[in-house]
Structure formats: C-alpha cells, structure tokens
C-alpha cells in the first residue's frame, strides 16, 4: 500500500519537512502555493501565459471564484478523537486516496515539455486521479500506459462529427478509461483578452490537438494529413458544437457504457436535468472563469446544487482552489470531490513532475491537518460536522 494511502499518511508529508530541516534542508518550492503563480508566470512566454492562465473578459469570474473562499470561515471543534484519520473514497468506480483530483487542462506543453505525462505520474504516486483533457498534448493511449492505475477519467470535446466522437470513445475504452467527462459549458470559446491580444490559440498551432490530429476518423477527413493549414482548418471545423441539447446528452449517455460525469453545471435545475439524462455525477464548474465574465463563483453555487441533488449522485467542484484549506471548505459545503486546476499548472510550469508532486503533497497534507484541527477524522464527515459558515464581517473577542 502506498504511503499516502496509509492511515495518516498525509501527516508524514507535513512532519517530514520539519525532520529534514534538522539537517538544514528546506523545501525547494514555497508551501504557500499561491506564491507559485508569480513564479510560473515569470517562466512562461507572454502568449503562452495569456492562454493558460487568462480568464474571460476583465477576469471578474476568476477573481470571484477565489473571493468566495475568503467569505467563508471554519469553526473548529475540540477534544474529539482524530488520532486515526482516513480520507480515502471511491467515486465513479475510482478509488482515491482523498477526495481530490486534477481537473482537465489543455495545451500543457506550453508550460513544460513533459506536460500531461508529468501530471499523471505525480498524481498516480499519490493516489490522485487525473482527468485527461481532450486538449492533452499526449495521446490518451500513451498517458494510460504512463500511469495505468491513475488515468481512468477523460473529458470529451463535444465535436460536431459523430465519427470522430465514436472513435475517441473507442480509443478511451481500449486505453482503460472507464469514466467519461462531458463538458457542457463550451458552446463557443469565451472572450479571453489575454489570449486574443496575442492572437494565439495553441490548437491552431498543433499544441493540445494531439488526440484529434492522430485520430483515425479525423485523418480520414483529410485530403493531405501532412498539410498544416488543412489540419488547422479541419480542427476548427470540428471544434465545440453549439447545437448540442439535452437530447444530445441522452444520446451520448447511450453510447458510453461507463460512468458519465457532466461538467460545467451552474444551476440546480441543470444539475437535476443532467441526472435525469443519466449522469453518474455532476461537476459544478465555470471553466475556471474562462467562459463567462461575471459568472457566479462555483463555491457559491455549490450548496444549492448539493441540496438539489440530495445524494442521488456525487457532486464535484473546481474553481479558485489554492490550498488544502480551500479543499476542506468545498467538502464542508457538500462536495464529494474537489478539482485542482491552476495550482497544478503552476507547479508543472515551475518544476515539472516534481512541481506537480509538491503541489499535491502540500494540498493533501494541509487538507489533512485542517480536518484534524477541526475535530473531524474523515473528509467524508465534514459536511455533517457543520464546521463552515459565511463570514459575517463582525468579530468577537473572548
């Protein structure tokens, strides 16, 4: 059994830093993970940073996602027995060391040459699942071989060509992917000035388009597969289909035999509709603030969606998570699992697989320490423990 899957294994990450400090060793990267952002942005080319880190419009939703965590506070309970803690869970048939996963992100070779492979390997070592992006820079078959126990989830880009969709579904199943994520919040690309100002969309340059450009059904559409201009044009023709409806979701459900997660839900009524259409889990997400400038924070939307679903299927959430304490807040509001996006991107940019591992170690160890100090022994017990509330703006001193 992996150390991180053992009881209280995350605490050993925490204690290990102090033990190594006895010989003068300090962490190579900051343990306040928010500090990684400036390091990562300094390392990226401006046009690459514009695509990878930019948000929609004036960035209000990116800020709102983050600000929602600052409006909450935790209320510890004391003298509870939390000596033996276990945060392991199973979601959509995937065993997880903790209710944490890596959200799908595309074009990652802009950040580091090892890109998706570095992430899946670091995550696999820690029992954390990675949701493979449809815009991965490595073929899904190769990622599955790189981390066969971790690569179980894949997001599908909802193309307007059924032959390509069927081919991607078949490739996913043959690679051992058993859970499909379908994003429903991308009928068209959001208005992203940080990318537009550089006129740079990586997929038109072949970055993050690997799975499509190597797909047999896509290649069959080409007159000349070696013609870069034709490839870019054909890829653009295939991109997100704005004609998709709830009936389209039902048809996709019928075509995929494994668990189906519907991502990009922001209304309780849409979450319920997704369940009625056959979703095995609902994913509260606003695309990291990259689609609609001024959209509500996912953390703020979470409680109403959790109440609407009422335990019928798991509820996942991402957006604005910057620490293990943030993970705890989302879990306390009812999420069954929490996705990490930009944090992992920053770790990858700064130090590749080691940087991703550092981010995951810090998140998992802080999550465990926070849960223990709240007087709770399991991440799954956080909501019932009633340890989170909205900050009233008033403080009392006792």
From TrEMBL:
FMN hydroxy acid dehydrogenase domain segment(s): 25-392
Domain of life, source organism: Bacteria
One matching Pfam family: FMN_dh
Family assignment from sequence similarity: Belongs to the FMN-dependent alpha-hydroxy acid dehydrogenase family.
Species of provenance: Allokutzneria multivorans
Known cofactor(s): FMN
PROSITE patterns membership: FMN_HYDROXY_ACID_DH_1, FMN_HYDROXY_ACID_DH_2
Name of the protein in question: Lactate 2-monooxygenase
InterPro entries in the record: Aldolase_TIM (IPR013785), Alpha-hydoxy_acid_DH_FMN (IPR012133), FMN-dep_DH (IPR000262), FMN_HAD (IPR037396), FMN_hydac_DH_AS (IPR008259)
UniProt keywords, alphabetically: Oxidoreductase
């Amino acid at each position: 059994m992996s150390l991180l899957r053992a009881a209280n294994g995350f605490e050993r990450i925490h204690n290990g830093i102090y033990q190594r400090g006895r010989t003068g060793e300090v962490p190579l990267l900051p343990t306040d993970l928010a500090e990684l952002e400036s390091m990562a942005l300094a390392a990226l080319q401006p046009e690459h940073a514009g695509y990878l880190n930019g948000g929609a419009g004036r960035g209000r939703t990116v800020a709102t996602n983050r600000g929602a965590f600052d409006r909450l506070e935790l209320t510890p309970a004391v003298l509870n027995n939390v000596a033996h803690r276990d945060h392991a869970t199973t979601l959509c048939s995937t065993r997880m060391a903790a209710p944490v996963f890596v959200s799908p992100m595309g074009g990652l070779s802009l950040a580091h040459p090892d890109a998706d492979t570095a992430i899946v390997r670091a995550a696999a070592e820690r029992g954390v699942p990675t949701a493979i992006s449809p815009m991965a820079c490595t073929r899904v078959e190769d990622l599955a071989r790189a981390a066969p126990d971790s690569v179980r989830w894949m997001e599908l880009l909802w193309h307007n060509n059924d032959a390509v969709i069927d081919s991607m579904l078949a490739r996913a199943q043959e690679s051992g992917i058993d859970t499909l994520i379908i994003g429903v919040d991308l009928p068209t690309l959001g208005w992203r000035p940080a990318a537009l100002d550089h006129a740079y969309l990586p997929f038109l340059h072949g970055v993050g388009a690997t799975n499509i450009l190597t797909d047999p059904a896509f290649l069959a559409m080409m007159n000349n597969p070696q013609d870069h201009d034709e490839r870019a044009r054909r890829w653009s023709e295939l991109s997100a289909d704005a004609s998709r409806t709830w009936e389209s979701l039902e048809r996709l459900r019928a075509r995929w035999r494994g668990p189906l997660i519907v991502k990009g839900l922001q209304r309780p009524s849409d979450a319920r509709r997704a369940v009625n259409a056959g979703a095995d889990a609902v994913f509260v997400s606003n695309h990291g603030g990259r689609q609609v400038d001024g959209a509500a924070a996912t953390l703020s939307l979470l409680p109403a969606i959790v109440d609407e679903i009422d335990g019928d299927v798991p509820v996942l959430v991402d957006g604005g998570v910057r620490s293990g304490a943030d993970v705890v807040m989302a879990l306390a509001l009812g999420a069954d699992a929490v996705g990490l996006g930009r944090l992992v991107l920053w770790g990858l940019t700064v130090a590749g697989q080691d940087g991703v591992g550092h981010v995951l170690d810090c998140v998992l160890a802080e999550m465990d320490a926070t849960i223990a100090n709240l007087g709770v022994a399991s991440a799954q017990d956080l909501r019932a423990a009633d340890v989170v509330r909205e900050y009233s703006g008033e403080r009392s001193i006792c």
